[in-house]
Amino acid sequence: MPDSGNPEAKASPNLPWTTRLLMSAVAFAVDVSCRPNMTFNRRLFNLVDRKCSASSQPKNGVKSSDIVIDSGRNLWFRLYTPTNVTETSTTSSLPVIVYFHGGGFVLLAANSKRFDDHCRRLAKEIPAVVISVNYRLAPENRYPSQYDDGIDVLKFIDSKISTVEDFPDCADLKRCFVAGDSAGGNLAHNVAVRANECSFSNLKLIGVIAIQPFFGGEERTQSEEDLNDITPLVSLKLTDWMWKAFLPEGSDRDHPAANTFGKNAIDISGVDIPATMVIVGGFDPLKVWQKRHYEGLKRHGKEAYLIEYPNVVHGFYFFPELHQGSLFIDNVRNFVQDQSAKS
To answer: What is the largest CA-CA distance in the chain?
Structure first.
């Protein structure tokens, strides 16, 4: 069940001081790494972006390995397989979740420690085989590079995944989900839309999991203004910079990649979009855009579900000390199971 509470009655979210400190430190590192000339200081940001290696030996009930698709553009994915499930005889197959990490299309990676922990937890607790995609980043690679990478990963999974030695036999490609947080949630939606142009032989998309997806527009929403100073990771200053770094030069935030149902939106009436779960946080400045995305899907006749956690900030699922993280896992698990049962 979604979290309860009324954020409007609170001055700020109830967070442990350690969580606040970490979020502020990361936000500061991002802020100083985003240069005025629209370049990003990766060397500086990497000081706070701890990376970790794949683990062929099970770690917390999950093993992982890295699979390279195209070394020239650094396109690869980290494969997570829950060993505590595949070793039993009670489960013959597992759904596959193709996961796109967040970071405003500009920062972080599939091997960032926070995402490694996050995807490992999803693999174990859903349970599912998780494919965490390392796609190209802006501003070095602008739109549509990230979307192209996402589609190429789906094509690889469909046609070449059998060549991957570590890919488990229990993975059911007919129960495939695309998922992501923040910019990754944006990617999950847009990759699902573009997948309509592909003819897959083995893979079938049956769900989209958009976790606090990064959408926006030229309009300043009430939540962006009210919560701008509360959640520094998605302040107006930073999100404006990231949109400018990601979108084609000369574009504004009403580009359809940002404003999915705005004045320049692509008509998706005839597009087969899988059932979509949109997760929203009450203290997320982006929440109005996220709700509009959900409403747009419903308005176009798409199957969509809105899950709200009134008392959480952007990125709450990364912090195990926050109890809402368990509610989040329960909701994702229920969505995956429900859509799997329908397929």
So the answer is: 57
